[in-house]
Structures are given as C-alpha cells and as structure tokens.
Design brief:
With 474 residues, this protein is an all-alpha fold. 69% of the residues lie in helices and 1% in strands. The protein has helices at residues 2-6, 15-29, 32-40, 49-74, 86-101, 105-128, 131-138, 141-159, 174-178, 184-191, 195-217, 223-241, 260-266, 273-277, 281-309, 322-339, 350-355, 361-381, 386-401, 412-428, 431-447, 457-471, and strands at residues 80-82, 344-346. The protein has a two-stranded antiparallel ribbon. α20 (412-428) runs antiparallel to α21 (431-447). The radius of gyration is 22 Å and the shape is globular.
Length: 474
C-alpha cells in the first residue's frame, strides 16, 4: 500500500528510511509545539491559560493537516507548522488590536484569526489558478540557486544562536557570547548562574555535531537522528551530574489529557470580523497583504532550497508537483485559522529529514502523525534539548551551503543577489525578505547594464511589490 501511495522504489528509498527521516524532522522542529502558543499568547502573561491550551492544540492539528496534504497530494518530504517570524508578527498585530480597540486579548486574537483565514483562502485560490507556481518560475535561476546556501547559513545561525539558549539567557549566541568572550571568566560573569548550563549546551551541541558527521562519513543513513539522540543523552546526564537537576522533572506534573474544551470556547471557528474592522479597513487589507507576501516567499524559498538539496529540481531549477506542495501550506493555513493559530508554512527544518534520506510524502506523513500524537504526548517531546536540535541544524546548514558551487561567480548579476541573500537571510530571519532583496538586486543590475529584456515581466512586478513593501507600506 505504501509503495503504491508514495512510489518508494521510484524515489530510491524505503519505509525504514522515510520513517527515520520523518522522526528526524520532528525532533528538529518539535520546539514549535510549545514555543508557538508561548509567542501567540504572550508567554502566558495575558491571564489566558485557556487560549494557550487552544493554540497548543491548534499548532499540532493544523501542522498535521498541512503535512497530510503534502504527503498525499504532493508526495514530498516537507514538514509544515506555524511559521516563525509570522507568529511573532501575528502576536504584535493582536497586541495592537488590543491597544487600538480596547477589546480583550482573546477577542483581539479572534480578530487576528480573520486575517489568517483570508490569507489562507487567497493562497488556495492562487494555488489552484497556478499563480503561485508562475511566481516561482519568475525567480531567476541564479537567485533560485542561491536560496539553498542562504537557508544553510540561516540554519547555522539558528543552531549557533537562539535555538541553543538556556535559562534566562534564552537568546545567547554560541559564537558571540561564549567563544566571543576574551576569557572564560568574562563569559561566566556575563552569563551568571546560567554559565554552567551554557557550557553544557555548547559541549553537547558540538559532540552531537561530530557524532552526526562521523556517522554520515561512515554511510549511516540514520546519522542525524542518532547524533541527536546521543546529544540528548549527554545533555540529560550533564543536567543530572553537573547541574543537579532532573531532566525529566517536567513529566511528573505534566498533563496528557488534551484541553479540547478550551479550544472550542476560545478559537475553534471563532472569528471576530467586527473587531478587525475597528482598526480600519485599509489597515486590515494591508495586514492581509503583508502576511501573504511574507508567507508566499518564505514557503517558495523553503521548497526550492530544500528540494535543491534533495536533488528534486530539474535542469531548469523547477520542482515537480510544486502546485500541490503550495496547496499544502494554503490548506494548513486555513486549518490553522479555523482552529486557532497563525500562518502555517513549510518549515526549513525539513532539510534535516531530507538529509536523513526522506524523499517522499511518507516522511511528511510520519512527521504529521507524531505532531498529531503530541496532542497527547507533548510533555515527552518537550524534553528534547535545544542543544541536540542545534547539532542537526548546523550539520544540515553546512551541507546546504555547498550549493554555492552551482553559482556562476563570473556573472555579477548572479553573485551580488546571492551574496545579499547569504547575509540578509540569517540576519533578518526571513527567507521571503531575503529573496525580495535578491530579486531587486538582480533587476537593478540587468536594467542598468542594458539587459532589461532578460528580466521577465513578472520579475519586474515582484521586485516592485517588494520595494513597496520595504519602503512605502506603513
């Protein structure tokens, strides 16, 4: 049955490899399950525990829905969840609705969900009409080739940065705050009580990274997940031995009973269009367009970049079944709006599953099933240390950087857009914004070097849209 559904032999893979790849992807992105409700509800500071429970459940359910569509419709190994950056922006929008209208946080949240619903419906229509696919085709080959390496740098930045945070210093950067200190004593002084945990995190991360590399060099297909497991064990042991804390203490008081009642009462099919319009129809429309632009190019960038690493692109840099893959995030976004979370998009951490050998929708299906299971077993997923995830992200990031070999370094029209994406993607944290800067750079160079006819009409339009977004939209 699985062979018939996912064409495993045709894609030179098997059930074992796909399941391991799906679990690997899950482990690298499991953080979103708790982080997303934290971000969307102000880390519980709004006195809305019911809303936190609702967003938590919605995160698991909407992510799973998007991945099931990706698995069965597109047969691609890409995972989906509420996008980072987009969820933070959504939280800011909700806070602004509260301040402008005087509505409660829950009512303002329900108004924000209206934006996500409209965005999802717009994406469904654009995907069905092949508009989004044409936008992908409009991205010049040189820019397309640079997306994967830029994502690689962003993954390394995440792995060596905030993903490795501990304690109060949840945003410490390994290279800046640890190795960037002149002496260990200065690092200790800056980190205070968190210094021991920081040392354990750094050691665990690099041990996990080296385990992954060594196993990969020996041809072990499960290198990434085995390296993450090794890193997890080291971290748990370090917590018990050196930090004198129980790494599994959170499981004692954890509840494994889903709070479906909270979702029904706060977010399930709860849309407050009246509250949204109180901020003004022009502002509401602007917010919808902003969400659409960011999500569209984040998804396109992730799909193209990860597919490039997996060898799924043809000689023209196009991915088969791109339309179906784009439909998956649209369906996921609509599901998120109906249940109670921000925009669902393709996750860059999918690259870890691809590196573990995932080539078909069975990988996405596996990840989706585990996400759905987290409705009941989320406390177990929460004990995966960030250091283990960081090791995998750094490794995958390094591999994606190798895509730079495909760039024609003798053509400045290729080199400059790629160079700008390489720096802007990890710094801004936005794949979409980096692609926008790359397209603008490409268009400007072509126009002012007498090669304006080489730029497609749609590329001009997209570049103009990004210029408006960056400099004119207020």
């Amino acid at each position: 049955m699985l062979e018939k559904l996912f064409h495993l032999k045709e894609n030179k893979t098997n059930v074992r490899t796909e399941v391991i790849a799906g679990l690997t992807t899950f482990m690298t992105m499991a953080y979103i399950i708790a982080l997303n409700p934290n971000l969307l509800t102000g880390f519980g500071n709004n006195g809305t525990p019911a809303l936190w429970n609702a967003v938590f459940l919605s995160t698991c359910i909407a992510s799973a829905v998007g991945m099931f569509v990706m698995a069965f419709l597109a047969n691609k190994p890409f995972a989906m969840a509420p996008g980072m950056g987009l969820n933070s922006f959504f939280a800011v929008v909700v806070a602004n609705i509260v301040s402008i209208t005087g509505l409660s946080y829950v009512e303002s949240f329900q108004a924000g969900l209206c934006i996500i619903l409209v965005e999802g419906i717009v994406f469904l229509a654009l995907s069905v009409l092949n508009v989004r696919e044409k936008i992908v085709d409009a991205i010049p080959l040189g820019v397309r080739l640079g997306i994967a390496p830029a994502i690689g740098l962003m993954l390394m930045n995440i792995g060596l940065g905030s993903n490795a945070g501990v304690g109060a210093a949840s945003q410490f950067y390994v290279m800046r705050d640890f190795f960037g200190s002149l002496t260990p004593s200065l690092a200790s002084a800056n980190m205070g009580a968190d210094y021991s945990a920081m040392v354990l995190t750094v050691v665990t991360m690099f041990v996990g990274l080296f385990v992954i590399v060594i196993l990969a060099q020996k041809g072990v297909k499960a290198a990434v997940i085995l390296g993450m497991l090794a890193a997890s064990v080291i971290y748990w042991a370090g917590q018990a031995i050196f930090l004198h804390t129980n790494p599994f203490a959170s499981l004692k008081a954890a509840s494994f009973v889903p709070a479906f009642g909270d979702m029904v009462s706060t977010t399930l099919f709860k849309f407050n269009f009246k509250g949204l319009l109180e901020i003004g129809w022009f502002t509401a429309i602007t917010l919808v367009i902003t969400f659409c632009i960011i999500d569209m190019f984040d998804t396109i960038g992730t799909l193209v970049g990860t597919a490039s690493r997996a060898g799924m692109l043809d000689k023209n840099g196009k991915m088969p079944k791109m339309k179906e893959a784009l439909l998956a995030d649209a369906v996921g976004t609509v599901a998120g709006s109906l249940t109670g979370t921000s925009t669902v998009t393709t996750f860059v951490e999918s690259a870890s599953g691809v590196e573990a050998g995932g080539r078909t929708g069975l990988t996405a299906l596996t990840t989706g099933i585990v996400f759905l299971a987290c409705v009941f077993i989320a406390p177990v997923a929460a004990v995966i240390p960030a250091a283990a995830t960081s090791a995998a992200l750094i490794y995958v990031g390094v591999l994606m950087i190798t895509g730079l070999k495909n760039i024609d370094f003798g053509d400045i029209a290729q080199v400059l857009p790629v160079a700008i994406m390489l720096i802007s993607m990890p710094v801004s944290g936005s794949i979409g914004h980096a692609i926008g800067l790359g397209l603008i750079s490409y268009t400007v160079i072509k126009v002012f070097t007498g090669k304006a006819k080489e730029v497609s009409v749609l590329t001009y339009v997209i570049s103009a849209i990004f210029l408006v977004k960056f400099f004119l939209v207020v």
